[in-house]
Amino acid sequence: MTTQHPTAALHVLFLSAEVFPFAKTGGLADVAGSLPKAIRRLGHDIRIVMPRYGFIDPARWALEEIISELPVPFGEGTEPARIYVARHNEVPVYMVDNARFFHREQIYAYPDDAERFLYFSRAALELARHLNWAPHIVHCNDWHTALVPNWLKVVYRDDPFWQRTRTVYTIHNLAYQGVFDGHVLALAGLADQGFIVHPAFPHWQRVVHFMARGIIFADMITTVSPRYAREILTPEFGAGLDPLLRERADSLVGILNGIDVEVWNPATDTLIAQPYDVERLEKREVNKQVLQEQAGLPVDAGVPLLGFIGRLTEQKGVDLLVAVADAVVQHLNGQMIILGTGEAKWHEALQSTAQRYPRHVKVFLTFNNPLAHAIYAGVDMLLMPSRFEPCGLNQMIAMRYGAVPVVREVGGLADTVQDFDPRSGEGNGFTFGTYAVEAFLTAIVRAVENWKYATTWRRLQERGMRTDVSWTRSALQYVDVYRQALRTSGDMPAPLREKLSFVPLSEGT
Ligand code: ADP
């Protein structure tokens, strides 16, 4: 129970595996780099913790070492962590350093990811204790940090330091759940409590499901758009966890992501050829020319330029992107610029499309932030034919840069992009419903037809650029959720508790 005054400043420990500008593979880094800033500006003491990956150079970021050996419980013993802090940042960012786990080239995709991220999460809790800074809220993000609510309810249950702390667990993408072998329980110090027995999930008696534990044990759960919060309660979008999410529906809130409008600002962006704003939109044309040049495509203001940025996976609708290319080139004389990395089969499919249409299609198979900025600033339309999309940031960045989004009506895309209606003039983009090439192509054709009318198009661009895509509103909603979490008893809701039992690791099947 809390005695907090409703307006009192909160202490929030925010855990994320990636944080912009230090380490980024996608939207999680953007959120971790910008949401805490907005919450801090509301007067709360929020602090971030992330791993110090080997590629984060302490000198470049002026990291200050504050603890040389923090003992972190790991398996039977402890494993020491060195702790750095980046103070110049508006929000302090603590970094957990351990050569064995984090001195690697990439953030994810190692066979010991379970060990790496449970170690990181445990270190974050030990750090708070070392600093004698008891957070009101530990805000965990995605599977990497999902064991924290479990620990607070089990391992630290009777620890006075953690008595007032409540947890908020944010699902950024239900597709990445973190499911590992049972040995992880011993490393996490959870062998005695052990496997979870739940009638709807018999396989949990053999595996450790990080995300499910976050959902079960967190005091409040959020996800990154209201529409996705509803979608994930259904089998179609629930990625197998919908029965569990339905049991916690009362504690689940959808809050739309914002973007960092200082990082993403066409008027001050040093990564684009020609800065511009909504009053001087004609200047934007220079960026289209420069982008066409950079892509080795004919420089021509008279052809529609369509962009795509993102992970090349099933989720992002890359199959539709590949399938639509012939028609875009042959019937619309459109140019396409695609920036992304991901699965080999999509790399090959896109490369062969580019080879077929060297004067129309350019594919960059890399992760390149400056190029992403140049694309947002240069393309006429940004395509997002996602199969599912928890929130999606690209469409918001696109709008801010005067690129008109063409998106599927799903998840956060449906919450942020309204289909253009030429009669009323309402809408800020083009949308389609059915996951099919014809539906996607229809939306593209409508976009290109409207692009031909300069005044109509300019109005669409202006509406997008004037849309509030900042964190202002959503940060307040997060603070509301923090306060809701603080009002909970800290016990698991009774209906769920009655369904669950536990099997110690030693007795597991
Ligand atoms: P995700 O599902 O990957 O988190 P989001 O739309 O939420 O997708 O966020 C994607 C973020 O990553 C955006 O900031 C986008 O500009 C960036 N991004 C994705 N792929 C690339 C790439 N290949 N190069 C540069 N930036 C990228």
Tell me about this structure:
By secondary structure, the chain is an alpha/beta fold. The protein folds into 2 domains: 11-258 and 473-507, Rossmann fold (3-Layer(aba) Sandwich), CATH 3.40.50.2000; 278-465, Glycogen Phosphorylase B (Rossmann fold), CATH 3.40.50. 36% of the residues lie in helices and 18% in strands. It has 18 helices and 19 strands. It has helices at 27-41, 99-102, 113-130, 147-153, 183-187, 210-217, 226-231, 242-247, 284-294, 318-332, 344-356, 369-378, 394-400, 411-416, 437-451, 454-466, 472-487, 494-499; strands at 11-15, 45-51, 64-74, 77-86, 93-97, 137-141, 166-171, 179-181, 195-197, 207-209, 220-223, 252-254, 305-309, 335-339, 361-364, 381-384, 404-408, 430-432, 501-503. The strands form 4 sheets. A 9-stranded mixed β-sheet has the order 3-4-5-2-1-6-7-11-12, sandwiched between helices. A 6-stranded parallel β-sheet has the order 15-14-13-16-17-18, sandwiched between helices. Helix 4 (147-153) packs across helix 6 and helix 10 (318-332) crosses helix 15 (437-451). The mean pLDDT is 96. Bound molecules: adenosine-5'-diphosphate. Adenosine-5'-diphosphate binds next to helix 1 and helix 12.
